[in-house]
Amino acid sequence: MQKRVIVSVINDLVTDQRVNKVCQTLTSISCDVLLVGRKMRNSPKLDDRDYAMHRMKLMFDNGPLFYAEFNIRLFILLLFRKADLFISNDLDTLLPNHIVSKIKRIPLVYDSHEYFTEVPELVNRKRTQAIWKFIERKLFSLQTDIITVNDSIADLFEKDYGTRPHIVRNIPRKRQSVKKLSREELSLPVDTNILILQGSGINMHRGSEELVEAMQYVKNAVLLIIGGGDVIDELKKMSKTFKLDKKIIFLPRMPYQQLMQYTAVADIGLTLDKSTNLNYKFSLPNKLFDYIQAGIPVLSSSLPEIEKIITKYNVGDFIFNHDPKSIADKINEMLSNKTQMEKWKKNCNFAASELTWENEEKVLIDIYSKYV
Fold first, then answer.
1. Is the pLDDT of residue 22 over 90?
2. How many CB atoms sit inside 10 A of residue 279's CB?
3. Please, what's the largest Cα pairwise distance for the chain?
4. Is the Cβ–Cβ distance between 289 and 263 less than 8 Å?
5. For residue range 282-292, what is the model confidence (pLDDT) as tens digits?
């Protein structure tokens, strides 16, 4: 008989590839999976998947009332749905999962995708940060199995709570042999270089504002920004202010396979997070691995976990400050060195063969096999 697993996350499920891959892994070991999230006013339609999904429509979109409503609704859903295992993704879903798991005596696995209490939305809101830190402090050490995304964040949790999580990095699956679309088919320019910045969290302190400003000085290239985030509207205003409409292309969030068609025709992938908070400083963004899987060199800020990957596999270069002119100079330098670009592309192909979800998920299967 299939074991029933309820996986919960606070986003709208559309672009969360880590949660999708976890659900696919659970399905591969014969679990009956229900993924629970929320539906926002602008949420795209979900693609077809091999597991069930449920998105809750909420009255509030953000703020304390949103979190309260989401947690109450999730508590009720978990309480009245049959399940053999709960999986909580990130701190903002942990409390209802923990309470119901104790009431119903159902095991719970906690998957922390980031160092939540140090995200930029909290670091300057000390009262709100203190509330989330209190919840984490009370619940973290009570969990039997905890997963996180890299060694640096695992080190922080171990220092805080004396418990070291399992590590499962957010790496794509092996590249599939699918028909690639050309730049013409994607309505992209064919006679210039393409830079790409992708992600569902293009937010403050992630270097995107400086990147847009840098495009004034970048030669023979356009910047493709795909995704969403709290600075997208500001980036569009900046693009107009600097008269960069012909050098910057904005596209909305889109399904992963469609996104990767655009990534595959780019020349450089960008990830420029700043170390303004511990969460960003020790981040290991999935777009880094998407770029590698697509076979394109990476330009990154010099953050510890990202630097490990780029240096180990020699797949790109770094900026060492966020001055727009300096960013532009590095982009121009990379694009002009055709020999080095070819070496980085070749190294991406090797790295892509090692950095796969199929390797990462072995840790998950060992964990989940105890419960299902």
1. yes
2. 22
3. 62
4. no
5. 999 999 999 99
Beta strand spans in 283-364 (E): 298-301, 316-319
DSSP state of 60: -
Distance between CA atoms of 112 and 20, rounded to whole angstroms? 15
Residues 150 and 239 in one domain: no
The reply to whether 188 falls in a domain is: no
CB 319 within 8 A of CB 327: yes
Residue 297 lies in a domain: yes
CB 303 within 8 A of CB 280: yes
The token duo for 249 is 């292309």
30: left (phi over 0), alpha (psi -120 to 50) or beta: left
CB atoms within 10 A of CB 242: 16
pLDDT at 256: 87
Instruction: Report helix angle 63-80 to 94-104, nearest 10.
Output: 20
**In the numeric block, which tokens belong to residue 79?**
């309480």
Residue 152 identity: S
Separation CA 49–CA 77 (nearest Å): 21
